[in-house]
Amino acid sequence: MARGILETFGLAGSVLLAAPPALFGAQRLVDGDALLGGGFLALATLMILVPQYAKTPDDVVVGTVERGVGWVVGGGDESE
User: Fold this and answer.
1) pLDDT in tens, the chain (80 residues)
2) Taking the C-alpha atoms of 49, 55, 57 and 62 in order, what is their torsion angle to the nearest 10 degrees?
3) Does 80 fall in a domain?
4) Are 39 and 29 in contact (CB under 8 A)?
């Protein structure tokens, strides 16, 4: 999946913010507290994945317009 420069910086920011909870969760797992450690690792994972895959209202509108324009433009003579 190709990313633009803004998406790459957004991902880097998400990883930067998710690093402390991930490190704390890993330390708790090493210390034997599986529930707290797993919880913080899950939180760090969600901090990275949710911004990448969640749809915003702007994404929905842009996707709908792109599909509509593609249908109108591509809806011409199909014998070509």
Assistant:
1) 567 888 889 899 999 999 999 999 999 999 999 999 999 999 999 999 998 888 777 777 777 888 888 788 876 555 54
2) 120
3) no
4) no
In a domain, 70, yes or no: yes
The reported pTM is 0.67
Q: Give dist(CA 13, CA 7) in Å, integer.
A: 10
- Position of tokens 């957004």? 10
Place of tokens 């210390």: 31
Other Cβ atoms less than 10 A from the Cβ of 79: the count is 4
Q: Find the helix or strand (DSSP H, E) in which 80 lies.
A: none
Domain around 56: 5-74
**What six digits make up the tokens of 58?**
């702007």
